[in-house]
Amino acid sequence: MKYNILIGGSAGQGMDTWAVLLEKIIKRKGYYVFSNKDYMSRIRGGHNFIQIRFGTEPISSHDPKLDIIVALDKNTIDFHTERLQENGVIICDQAIEIEDKRVLALPLKELAKELGNPKVTGTICMGVVLKLFGMNFDRVEEVFEEKFEKETTELNFKAFQEGYEYAQQQFHIEKGGEDQHILINSNQAIALGALAGGVGFFAGYPMTPFTSIMTYMSEKQEDAKMVVEQVEDEIAAINMAIGTSYAGVRSMTGTSGGGFSLMTEALGLAGIMENPLVVANIQRPGPATGLPTRTEQSDLSFILTASHGEIPRMVLAVRHAEDAFYQTVRALNLADKYQMLVIILGDQYLSDATETIKPYDFSKVTIERHIAGKESFKDGEYKRYQPTEDGLSPRIIPGKHRGQIVLTDSDEHNEYGHITESAEVRTAMMDKRMKRMDALKEELIEPDYFGVDHPENLLIGWGSMYGPLKEAVALLQEEGISVGTLVFGDIYPLPTKLLEKYSTTAKQILNVEQNYTGQLAKLIRQETGIHCSKSILKYDGRQMCSHEIYSRVKGEVL
Question: Is the confidence at residue 557, as pLDDT, over 70?
Answer without folding.
Answer: no
